[in-house]
Design brief:
This protein is mainly beta. It has two domains: about 80 residues, Sandwich (Immunoglobulin-like); about 240 residues, Distorted Sandwich (Beta-galactosidase, Chain A, domain 5), CATH 2.70.98. It has three helices and 29 strands. It has a nine-stranded antiparallel sheet with strand order 11-18-19-20-21-28-25-24-23, with helices on one face. The radius of gyration is 23 Å and the shape is globular.
Length: about 400
Amino acid sequence: MKQLGIIALSLLGLAACQPPAVTVTLKNQLSQDIAEMPVVIERVVIEQKLGVLEAGTFPLLKDQGSVVPQQLDDLDGDGNWDQIAILVALTASTDKVLDLSKTSVYPTLTQRTSVYLGVDYDRSDAFVEKDQEVRHADNIAMQYPMMYQMEGPAWENDKVGFRLYFDSRNGKDIYGKTTDKMTLHLAGVKGQNYHKQDDWGMDVLKVGNSLGAGAVAMMYEDSLVKLGDTEAGEYATIVEGPVRTIFEVRHQGWNTPVGDLSVTERITIWAGQYGYQEELICDQKDVTWVTGIVNKYADKMYTGETPQSRYIYTFDQQSENKDNLGMAVVVTSDSFVDAGETANEGDGVIETYYVAFKSNETPKYYFVAGWEPTDAQFSTAEGFGETVAQQALVFSAAVVIE
């Protein structure tokens, strides 16, 4: 009995010597469950809990023993990570406690987001991926064979894809997807026609002279002036990973009624979501910025709001495949000025439902797209509207991190 008592006391002593568990608490302030909530945790928060991490050591977050989908992002290009981007399931109005530890072997996760720019200056269908690119002076809109695969950068997640015309049009388009794999690097090569349905999906949108899938414009004297031809353009991948991808398109020398402007579009796409987020960066502060949705085949603009956001959306048999497609623009309530509609014909921007932002704001917005073949949820306007409402909550929610 004495020996057992000594062993028991020894075990108690060992337990007392163990360092306390390190945790991160996420406070969900939403009154509904979110299956995959995007959350960003700054490095300073992690190192306040773990201490300064030595070279070759990384933070690791787990939820009840399972690795949380996560990635370490270097946003300023100095070779050191600045943020952890994670996706986590949150229960309505409930705290989520994650275990935080150190590891020397960072987990390898399935790639669920991507951005791709294929370049071939010889127009010989021999595209090479580039992470940085200055727009070539000979890249003329709608000149084929293409210099840029898919006419510009294309980004996707496991739900939906998009592309930006890297030329004088500067429009945005949608790729409807029927697979959760990253496939857009296969689109637009010789023998592949992304305007016809492939085993991964297709280009589903007719953009024309509209704002398409969230293109940028300014309001000037009751008219929309679209971000179009510029003196120069640059593309840069910031981060690309299993959880989120961020890239920038930088426009210099945009001739506008208020002078020449330089504008940067910073675009983020998270895994598991039905859209992308854009932040518009410009030194000119007295601009009323606008974004919008093509309404060429849509008969109605729906509107909605959450406590922190406002949104507009359409739903109709408006895809290039002649099936149902829903599109939405979500903005924060404090940046919203107005929503409206352009003419359906004439000069400039036409066939567009739009949202205008307050002047002196740096606009941030979220564009949502739901194609019926992707998910049966998008077979009705009500089903798409439910998705938009949830995406609006995700876009505008503030998760408190402790």
